[in-house]
Amino acid sequence: MAAALIRLKVELRQKHLQTHSAFCREYDRVAQTIDPALVGTSPGRAQFHRWLSGALKGLPYPHHCRVLEKMFPGYTAAQLFERCADNEPIALLDTSTTVVDNPRGLLGVIENRLRRPTFGVVDWASEQPGDASSSDAGLATDDARGVSKATQQLAQRLLQLEKAQRVNSREVSQFAHLAGHIIDLDTRIDIQISGDGSARLTYRYETLNMTDRPLTRMSRELWFKYTERKLDIRPLRESSRRLAIQRIHDTPSLSKFACQLSPAIQPGESAVVGYTCEGGKFVDELYWRQSIHRYTRRFAIHLRHGDAGDLISCSAVEEHQDGAENSATEDLIWDYEGDDVIVTLTREYLRPNQSVTLRWEVSREHS
Fold first, then answer.
1. Which of 36, 56, 120, 208 shows its CA 20 to 30 Å from the CA of 350?
2. For residue 147, what pLDDT is reported?
3. Where does a domain end: 22, 54, 85?
4. Together in a domain, 134 and 211
5. Which residues pair with 187 in a beta bridge?
6. For the segment 337-354, what is each residue's pLDDT rounded down to a tens digit?
7. How far is 334 from 258, CA to CA, in rounded Å?
8. Are residues 336 and 232 part of one domain?
9. In this structure, are 70 and 112 located in the same domain?
10. Which of 113-117, 143-147, 174-178, 179-183 has the highest mean pLDDT?
11. Are residues 332 and 232 in the same domain?
């Protein structure tokens, strides 16, 4: 039988925020959006331990509860301090939209999204009762025969995803509300720069098709300020689909191309696809700006700058659709391996038309 843990501890572990320092950074970031006066009011190390060990009697102070409920949308403070099994599906605050434990409700949300696709911004968070409850509730009471085959396939795939990949019930509900979109469950970019500035980039996407159409093609582009030759773009060998690179437009520093997939990623299916690029070069401006094409659950840039000497500075910025920016530097981890500089940047729950920029400066520059 699974040990009964405080739900907050389970949630923090899933977000990799279980250490006191990581929690405090996230606490301050969220507190800033509520009331700047709350920044710096995170619990001390001993108090944090009491929170996660279950030794706390009652609930934390009200200002702590405000920040925690903002950090974990869909949960009350009381729910966060309840005990639950480590692998227990966690119910959402709004039970009318908790679709995972109710397959008919899951069908209803997906059918509603597919029938009336949303072309504007869709929030990663599950909808509130007034957003789509009337249409969803009507469909939730219907027999599965009243919904399309594509809806049934998507619902079944989501339930399988929860079991196979330990996606929690809240995320499955979020994916259901994103029906009609392609979702990147995981995006990873590996940037390897040699001593002379020559670069090799590797893109790896784990893509989930939440539309009712097969996914056969994805368009991409790559740009470098400096290049050694025409950019050499090739399919990633570890892809679970066969890829063909279709060159659409090339200039000395820019390539627009498409990845053609075979077989197609069917509705509800997920697949790993990717490509590599060589020919670019980093010289006097060390940064990488990545546009986000799809709803992205997890995003990471892994940089290895060879023979770089010392890391002088490193920063990251996340840009939103409206042009607003926020610092992502708190999610940077860096280290040395010999004379190589290694940097990792991670982000979560990104939306289309956002971008993430990583900048760094090293003591050795190469021309």
1. 36
2. 75
3. 85
4. no
5. 205, 299
6. 999 999 999 999 999 999
7. 33
8. yes
9. no
10. 179-183
11. yes
